[in-house]
């Protein structure tokens, strides 16, 4: 009995803690494998987002029904210490015409016919003849349009490498052939990029601009008129230079 009691005591004091330690190791091993095995879970589609407030948080973004999930992006963002500032730039394709005639024609004030882009890492990213990016100042000279607005969207921990991988995955979705001034344009790309970088898209004023105009009986007339007087609206940035 004495020998049995000693062995029982030793088991309780030594083996149970060891078993608990092994259990914790197994759980830790499973979690590590869950994170690192299977870098891309769903592809092609839009990766999950990471932003300043919660750099390890993941958000689903969808573009035309496609969804991306990159665990590598999550791990990269989690180790990125310094956040990057994200901006949106807006150019008025109508050069002020929309603001002048919209109250009479539409019955409400339309500030501009917007072309937008994302500014981050010192570059400006846009959609026209596919997805392109240029140094910010160079892009302004290419558009030959005055910058009407430069809006701070927030900070992100997404690195340039992760973001470039993301936009590479969107080349088919935002191809030169898919561009349409009214239905699938620069504003839709800017919205997707902003949501990926910050967890939040851009204002509806830009994304649903055309739908708002078409609510007015005279809206289609205005869109047709602006297309005629603003040729660059239908082919903005259709240039052979730039990084794609």
Automatic annotation (TrEMBL):
InterPro entries: PPPDE_dom, PPPDE_sf. One of its GO terms (biological process) is protein modification by small protein removal. The keyword Magnesium does not apply. Keywords: Hydrolase, Protease. Residues 84-227 form the PPPDE domain. One of its GO terms (molecular function) is peptidase activity. Pfam families: Peptidase_C97. Gene3D superfamilies: PPPDE domains. Transmembrane segments: none annotated. Belongs to the DeSI family. This is PPPDE domain-containing protein.
